[in-house]
């Protein structure tokens, strides 16, 4: 199981990575959208993407445009610690581009909520 975590908040991305690895996921962290797009493009397997809305270089909305040409199964979960409007916009754009986007995530996120997220996403991607 593969997850990419894109967030410029290093403490948050390390936290998500630790929980993902506890749940059996192979995790890669990225600090901006451009890095995420490059990492995902280099991979060929299905993956979960946890994408912060507000990041440098490419934000969560811009990264959708970079990923839309990828034809394998990607599940996207947008995360924000700010206003909900940008997150909702990103989710709508992703759906319009034919990308799977689960419910929004809001910081701070509890360990148990993340564990449940990884369990439910594993079922959707790999079963």
TrEMBL record:
Keywords from the UniProt entry: Phosphoprotein
Database matches in SUPFAM superfamilies: CheY-like
SMART domains attached to this UniProt entry: REC (SM00448)
Ranges of residues in domain Response regulatory: 2-122
InterPro entries, A to Z: Bact_response_regulator, CheY-like_superfamily, Sig_transdc_resp-reg_receiver
Keyword Phosphoprotein: yes
Xref: CDD domains: REC (cd00156)
Modified residues (4-aspartylphosphate): 52
Keyword Phosphoprotein: yes
Protein name (Swiss-Prot/TrEMBL): Response regulator
């Amino acid at each position: 199981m593969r997850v990419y975590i894109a967030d410029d908040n290093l403490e948050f991305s390390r936290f998500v990575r630790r929980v993902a690895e506890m749940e059996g996921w192979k995790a890669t962290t990225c600090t901006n959208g451009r890095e995420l797009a490059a990492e995902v493009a280099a991979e060929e397997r299905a993956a979960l993407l946890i994408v912060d809305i507000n990041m440098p270089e490419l934000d969560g909305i811009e990264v959708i445009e970079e990923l839309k040409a990828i034809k394998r199964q990607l599940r996207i979960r947008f995360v924000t610690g700010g206003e909900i409007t940008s997150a909702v916009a990103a989710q709508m754009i992703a759906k319009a581009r034919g990308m799977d986007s689960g419910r929004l995530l809001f910081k701070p996120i509890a360990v148990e909520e993340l564990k449940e997220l990884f369990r439910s996403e594993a079922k959707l991607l790999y079963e």
